[in-house]
Amino acid sequence: MNGLQDWPEPIVRVQSLSESGLPMIPDRYVKPLSDRPSSNRPENGDANIPIIDLTGLTDDETELSRSTMDQISSACRDWGFFQVVNHGVSPGLMDQARETWRGFFHLPMEIKQAYANSPKTYEGYGSRLGIEKGAILDWSDYYYLHYLPLTLKDYNKWPGSPDYCREVIDEYGKELVKLGGRIMKVLSINLGLNESHLQNAFGGENIGACVRVNFYPKCPQPDLTLGLSSHSDPGGLTILLPDHEVPGLQVRKDGRWITVKPARHAFIVNIGDQIQLQPQTQSGTLNLEPESKSFEFKVLSNANYKSVEHRVIVNSGMERLSLAFFYNPKSDIPIKPVRELVSADKPALYPPMTFDEYRLFIRLNGPKGKSQVESLKSPRCH
Which stretches does the entry tag as region Disordered (predicted)? Predict the structure, then answer.
């Protein structure tokens, strides 16, 4: 996609560093003081993202109570994040998917290396985001793969071990596509639109979908680093299967970091940049240079719903694994704000661009909070 065939420097697997028993992390993983968990302590108390019961939102019955719809609307506007229970995905399949991927990360390194990725597509086994040489890195490894469209779905790039790994990934993906479609209907209705409006804006049946499995090994100095730096998700909707035994996800709320307390067999859902950002008509082409600040994004909801900054902390006593399923627009569709949500009082915030253009912009830069989204804003909105 971006023409790069290899990483700018040799890749080091974080899991190998962790298992070597080193007492201190290498300098490449030490975050600036302002970004360290030790310098920016979460203020939790009893705070947690909303937990919403989706009973009734199934293939056969897509009616939710007005109260539940209102809960989802408030969560999207106030948090950009919420947990869902009774969502229709089998708890057994959720556990099987998580443990199958855990099995992959504990395979011998020579087996995992056969699936090593490159910055060209990111698909496969990876250990860094962004292409800046000498960048401060995150304490994590990952596996990224395409699920939809079918033209990008290549089983040969999916791990062949442990046994039945590909079958489990496939079944899990089918269920998450269904759940994503149901949630999109609710978001559309809550915005006062036809229930299929957001889905059609994403390409109808021709959406994009991909999976990133995040593996956060034990870290000897967790207060100095992050498992995943602060960012907002570039896609449409993220459905995360967390490690309910090891909290790590933090959401930024009112300037504070809140550590999410995962409910068992719940998914964590969050709004991505493409729903916050929907570009309107504006001439020009996107400058994809890493330091470009010339364009901004508009969400389909024209910022009625927000994509929210989040990050991941690590710990010294336990590894952590999570599965992020990204429900995205078709890669070549220009994303722009819904006409009904734009007015003289609330003009379009972002210019149009395709999802592929935006994803490339993010990949070149790596995770950098919300600054990349803000840099894309229309000049008249600053």
Answer: 30-50
